[in-house]
């Protein structure tokens, strides 16, 4: 007889954990100790379920690297006691958290599934119940005694995605997330169908967590008519270590002399410039057009098909490792956790 799977549920805040007060109509966090009373379907699982709730639940708009450190530490401290983890999280910044945790949790051999909802779990039409129930089932799923999933994922509206490949694209429909450059890891219908070729392979190495993050990063999003004044202010912000350059199409930017001069000066000061596309699908190919050739020649790093969420958190992670420029640039362009296509 196989041992029951065990899953730890971690509630950070967000819409999914809210109940509506019958009298006032106000939304308030419900008591996770009475989780099975709110969702009786959970009692039908052959899974041992435990829960941890943040003392002060946070709206995901207030998400911060300190919270990522707290989550990574909770997972580390409970890693040997559970087969999988489900994090309940607000949807607005869920892709940032999933991306950050993917880098912070090195050699992960168990599922960490983030989920949430567009409607509170206490609302009749909520999407929260299905999202939570299936996320728990995925977190507890095994094949021949081993976890089926070994990475940080997002489960939302019948699909499981690699967390660092996602972005939130919809605030009014239940299918809130997309992963345009990587296929879904699983799809829930009558059964849960796993795309096993898309899943990260397990490792025999021990879990290692990284909690040193550096957020000295600026973002420069290009648009027709962007001024030298604004560009210069962003690039010359005191103390910044890296700039994410959000370019057009396949990594293209204006070729005006003042712009290229500003970028070149930043690179000469040791600032990392990472080029990612404003397009949600496709990737940066520097040198494909004349408008990106100059960037490539002066040392701007191609972000290929990194999402913005993955780019910003990967930079935070790598900047926190105290690497030299050569190491940092190499790892930035390396596929560490499935965030880049080969």
Strand tally: 20
Structural class: alpha/beta
What would you give as the CATH superfamily of the largest domain? L-asparaginase, N-terminal domain
Distance between the termini: 41 Å
Total domains: 2
Radius of gyration: 21 Å
Which spans of ≥5 residues are poorly predicted at pLDDT below 50?
A: none
Mean pLDDT, all residues: 91
Could you describe the largest sheet, including whether it forms a barrel? 8 strands, mixed
Provide the succession of SSEs.
EEEHEHEHEEHEEEEEEEEEEHEHEHEHH
> What count of helical segments does DSSP give?
9
- Residues in helices, as a percent range: 25-40%
CATH architecture of the largest domain: 3-Layer(aba) Sandwich
- What would the CATH topology of the largest domain be? Rossmann fold
- Could you give the order of strands across the largest sheet? 4-1-5-7-10-11-14-15
- The shape is globular
What amount of the residues lies in strands? 15-25%
CATH class type of the largest domain: Alpha Beta
Please specify the SSE layout and strand pairing.
Elements: E1 5-11, E2 18-20, E3 27-29, H1 35-38, E4 47-53, H2 65-78, E5 84-88, H3 94-104, E6 105-106, E7 112-115, H4 128-139, E8 142-143, E9 146-147, E10 152-156, E11 159-162, E12 167-168, E13 177-178, E14 186-188, E15 192-194, E16 208-209, E17 217-221, H5 228-235, E18 242-247, H6 257-268, E19 272-277, H7 290-298, E20 301-302, H8 308-319, H9 325-332
């Amino acid at each position: 007889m196989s041992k029951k799977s065990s899953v730890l549920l971690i509630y950070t805040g967000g819409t999914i954990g809210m109940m509506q007060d019958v009298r006032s109509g106000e939304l308030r966090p419900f008591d996770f100790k009475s989780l099975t009373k709110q969702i009786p379907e959970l009692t039908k699982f052959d899974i041992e379920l435990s829960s941890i709730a943040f003392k002060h639940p946070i709206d995901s708009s207030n998400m911060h690297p300190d919270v990522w450190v707290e989550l990574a530490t909770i997972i580390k401290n409970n890693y040997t006691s559970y087969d999988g983890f489900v994090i309940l999280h607000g949807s607005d910044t869920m892709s940032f958290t999933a991306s950050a945790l993917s880098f912070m949790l090195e050699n992960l051999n168990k599922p960490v599934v983030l989920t949430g909802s567009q409607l509170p779990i206490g609302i009749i039409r909520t999407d929260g119940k299905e999202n939570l129930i299936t996320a728990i089932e995925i977190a507890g799923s095994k094949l021949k005694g081993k976890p089926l999933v070994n990475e940080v994922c997002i489960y939302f509206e019948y699909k499981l995605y690699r967390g660092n490949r996602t972005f939130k694209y919809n605030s009014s429909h239940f299918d809130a997330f997309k992963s345009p450059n990587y296929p879904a890891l699983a799809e829930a219908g009558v059964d849960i169908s796993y795309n096993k070729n898309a899943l990260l392979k397990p490792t025999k190495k021990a879990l290692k967590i990284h909690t040193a993050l550096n957020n000295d990063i600026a973002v420069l999003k290009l648009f027709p008519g962007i001024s030298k004044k604004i560009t210069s202010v962003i690039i010359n912000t005191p103390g910044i270590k890296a700039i994410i350059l959000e370019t057009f199409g396949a990594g293209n930017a204006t070729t005006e002399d003042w712009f290229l001069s500003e970028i070149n000066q930043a690179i000469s000061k040791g600032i990392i410039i990472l080029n990612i596309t404003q397009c949600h699908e496709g990737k940066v190919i520097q040198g494909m057009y004349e408008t990106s050739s100059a960037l490539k020649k002066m040392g701007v790093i191609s972000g290929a098909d990194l999402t913005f969420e993955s780019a910003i958190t990967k930079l935070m992670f790598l900047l926190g490792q105290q690497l030299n420029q050569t190491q940092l640039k190499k790892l930035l362009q390396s596929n560490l956790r499935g965030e880049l296509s080969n």
